[in-house]
Write a structure and sequence with these properties.
The chain has helices at 60-78, 102-109, 120-131, 151-163, 178-184, 199-205; strands at residues 2-6, 9-14, 19-24, 27-31, 40-41, 45-52, 81-88, 92-99, 138-144, 167-172, 191-193, 217-218. The protein is α/β, with parallel strands linked by helices and 219 residues long. It has two domains: 2-31, no CATH class; 41-209, 3-Layer(aba) Sandwich (Rossmann fold), CATH 3.40.50.410. The protein has a six-stranded mixed sheet with strand order 8-7-6-9-10-11, with helices on both faces. Strands 1-2-3-4 form a four-stranded antiparallel sheet, with no helix packed on it. The chain is globular, with a radius of gyration of 25 Å.
């Protein structure tokens, strides 16, 4: 056995079992010569896409939204996010928990139709309540074509979500108010207003703004 002293640190090397130990400041680190086995897990992010289904979305805008949501989800899956859907008109309705099963989302999204007013407040509140207890990356994506029934309460719910670490992205058609979309979003660059015929493409492209949710942890 060899013992070496270096500035208050004792290094011991045992030849018979190739063990090396380092002692200093009351802390001992031992290496046996065997490789250290470590595994890692990926912490999937969670996204809720909040889709405007108010009466003004009837026709091409709603079809654009449906197409955009599915394409967005496919890209989000590749970035290790699970995607859920909430629709809103006069009230909010939860359609799907976050999943990476595209068939589930396609089945839910095809049943959506447009009617009623624009209760965005209820939709944000519902998404917030579903995400609040999750510790990983969490995102709300809002796709809308106009102003909500109550601007003040919508902004209040959005601010509550952002304060608790939920990222908010907003996509609006040419009927939307870009300044309102900017206030809803976590940052100005996370809001976008496009012509109605570009709505699907804009929703898809919002996936490019998703940061990697991977949380690497030793297991």
């Amino acid at each position: 056995m060899d013992i070496e002293e270096r500035k208050g640190i004792q290094i011991t090397h045992k030849r018979d079992n190739e063990e090396i130990s380092i002692v200093g400041g009351g802390i001992k680190i031992a290496a046996s010569g065997k490789p250290i086995s470590t595994s890692f897990v990926v912490n999937w992010g969670r996204i809720y896409i909040v889709v405007d289904c108010s009466g003004s979305m009837i026709g091409n805008k709603l079809e654009q939204a449906k197409s955009g949501v599915i394409d967005f989800a496919k890209d989000a899956f590749r970035k290790d996010y699970l995607v859920g859907i909430i629709k809103f008109s006069s009230k909010a309705e939860h359609l799907s928990e976050p999943t990476n099963d595209i068939a589930i989302l396609q089945n839910k999204i095809k049943s959506i139709h447009a009617s009623g007013s624009t209760n965005l407040t209820a939709a944000i509140k519902m998404a917030y309540s579903k995400l609040i207890d999750f510790t990983g990356s969490k995102v709300i994506v809002i796709a809308t074509d106009g102003m909500p029934d109550n601007v003040k309460s919508s902004l209040k719910e959005a601010n509550n979500a952002k304060t608790d670490g939920i990222e908010i992205l907003t996509i609006g058609t040419d009927d939307a108010d870009i300044e309102f979309l900017k206030k809803l979003a976590s940052r100005t660059e996370l809001s976008k207003k496009v012509p109605s015929e570009m709505f699907a493409q804009a929703i898809l492209e919002a996936s490019l703004l998703l940061a990697s949710p991977k949380s690497i942890k030793p297991k």
